[in-house]
Amino acid sequence: MPVARPEQQQPRVIAHVDMDCFYVQVEQRRNPALRGQPTAVVQYNDWKGGGLIAVSYEARGFGVKRSMRGDEAKRVCPGINLVQVPVARDKADLNLYRSAGSEVVAILASKGKCERASIDEVYLDLTDAAKEMLLQAPPDSPEEIFMEAAKSNILGLPSDASEKEKNVRAWLCRSDADYQDKLLACGAIIVAQLRVRVLEETQFTCSAGIAHNKMLAKLVSGMHKPAQQTVVPSSSVQDFLASLPVKKMKQLGGKLGSSLQDDLGVETIGDLLSFTKEKLQEQYGVNTGTWLWKIARGISGEEVEDRLLPKSHGCGKTFPGPKALKNSTSVKGWLDQLCDELSERIQSDLNQNKRIAQTLTLHARASKENERDLAKKFPSKSCPLRYGTGKIQEDAMKLFESGLQDFLESQNTGWIITSLSVTASKIFDIPSGTSSILRYIKGHSPAASPAIPDSSSVPEDPSLGDVP
DNA sequence: TTGGCTCACACT
DNA sequence: CAGTGTGAG
């Protein structure tokens, strides 16, 4: 559930940058013949043409949606190009997109605090950079600055294309006295420049929102897509939120948003204003209640984290319907594959980023054959993570067996597994300075204290070989 | 077949 | 702390 954070006293300049149909762009860069064409990226072509995970804007024009299957997309857009996600170890392999995302992050991190929010989104805190610009090149004077800012859509201003530049100019001039708007304008200029750099250096376009907090920046980053940006002046916030459907707000897309509609009759964020803080707290608890009260007023103190890398690595696969796994042998086979990929990913994280993961977690979904016990869930299990593909595979299988025992509760009915995943988490930087990474591992890694009751002491796996 | 595969986070 | 649930894209 969302939680309210102590608010910011000083105005910040926050940007949310969102890559346009990112997987499609990655594939278009790889195969330029796809540029400008209706294109979608699909995974697993066998069942109904595979599921779409990204759709180009040309294809969207034909009504192609992300929730469609490949077959359906072909129906509404016969000329669509369907590109398959790469497959490795018999599963979708997203590494191509992960590394493309890293290219983008590396550029966007150059102007301020940068938080990788997902494979194709980042938040930036540009407060310092914007203040700096305001001191050195106030955006009232140089014509060039206007031209840059003119690339933005300004929320609350008419965004008639031919009038856009004039509108921006009017906004900046009118706001002579408004320091906060000027900071935002500088932020918009910086973001416009960053987006140009991203395009030049990666060939990818992106869209962005610029506002005084993360919530507002995120809300508008997708408002003008593709390859555009939108600014939220404080003066336009209340009108904007007043008519915003609750479900559009981040965190309100699910059950909480439904509850607001069904239980309180709240249809827009503006509707929230008629409830007292106390009423909202009574309904949803003190944390969520105050959070709701604040967002209705455009207040969000959430900070941009300084983090360019993910906090966990996971590999998973589903086995729907007839593909369900029915015995330990097939589970072991798939688990080995998933662990192989996971091992490779954490190993490269260690080599490239000097980070080490401490926990291995196994998730599964299961049903019991013939029986009506659909409610019962397969429990997640975790243990200290030992590096080395063989060890991870071994530990993951032990976690599975342990979870299966709990799941079956000593009954001996048949079972089927419909999804499996392994995750490496609790990732820490290895203290730099001493080059003795291996000694660090010896002293601090779980390898020194295996949590899995280890009956079969395993021969040493030399897979740390490429660490200096 | 609740689109698949990832991620993050709050709660207990 | 390990494990559960929600939510996002």
From TrEMBL:
Record's signal peptide: none
EC number: 2.7.7.7
Cofactor(s) this protein requires: Mg(2+); Mn(2+)
One function term, GO molecular function aspect: DNA-directed DNA polymerase activity
A GO CC term attached to the entry: nucleus
Biased amino acid composition, Low complexity: 446-457
InterPro entries: DNA/RNA_pol_sf, DNA_pol_Y-fam_lit_finger_sf, DNA_pol_Y-fam_little_finger, DNA_polymerase_eta, Rev_trsase/Diguanyl_cyclase, UmuC
Keywords: DNA damage, DNA repair, Magnesium, Metal-binding, Nucleotidyltransferase, Nucleus, Transferase
Localization terms from the record: Nucleus
Record-given protein name: DNA polymerase eta
Reaction(s) catalysed (UniProt annotation): DNA(n) + a 2'-deoxyribonucleoside 5'-triphosphate = DNA(n+1) + diphosphate
Location of the UmuC domain: 14-253
Alphabetical GO biological process terms: DNA repair; error-prone translesion synthesis; response to UV
Keyword DNA damage recorded: yes
UniProt keyword GTP-binding present: no
PANTHER family tied to this protein: DNA POLYMERASE ETA (PTHR45873:SF1)
